[in-house]
Amino acid sequence: MGNDEAMSITSRAWQFRNWYMNTNFCSHCGGKLIPSDKDYGRICEECGTTFYAPISPAVITAIERDGKLLLAHNVAWPETRYSIIAGFVEPGERLEETVRREIREEVSIEVKNVKYFGSQTWPFPNSLMLGFTAEYESGELHPDGVEISRAGYFTPDEIRNMNIPDRASIARKLIENFLATH
């Protein structure tokens, strides 16, 4: 079993465990939820409403500018950790819109040529990470100071010596993709 498959199985188990432990009653009528015999849903004993584990889609994007990759430091991380920009999809928003909005909100730049890269289930909190690549279009980097404390464009040689996400993450796969093509 490869790392991707192991991560997927672990993530799925973690998400179902948390959902089963924390969702025991119907949000419509208050009845007790029981397992469905047809799928992974849970059914209300009182009103028959079926519920499924929530999934929170999030985008994560590798942004290139002049042969360099944009990396940012999140205020919640260890001081030396850097990664790429990510954020949750809002209701009614297309994925490409989320990519542009998150980047604009977190570092104040615009991007172009947004392309899908791949996905990864991620159990924190119950995410489906949707990876993208994009190119810098315009603007000056201005970290928001709320989520992102600093950001910059880094060469492949600089990135190889940085504290970046673990190999199990799609963030690392996007960074490694950049390194492999530069």
Task: Tell me about this structure.
This protein has 182 residues and is of the alpha+beta class. It has four helices and nine strands, in the order H-E-E-E-E-E-E-H-E-E-E-H-H. The strands form two sheets. Strands 4, 5, 6, 7, 8 and 9 form a six-stranded mixed beta sheet that branches. Strand 2 (42-44) and strand 3 (50-51) form a beta hairpin. The protein is elongated and about 60 Å long. The chain starts with a helix and ends with a helix. 25% of the residues are buried.
Order of helix and strand elements from N to C terminus = HEEEEEEHEEEHH
Mean pLDDT: 94
- Counting DSSP E segments of at least 2 residues, the number of strands comes to 9
Supply the helix-strand structural class. alpha+beta
- Helicity range: 25-40%
Distance between the termini: 30 Å
Poorly predicted runs are: none
Q: Helical region count? A: 4
Global Rg: 19 Å
> In what range is the share of β-strand residues?
25-35%
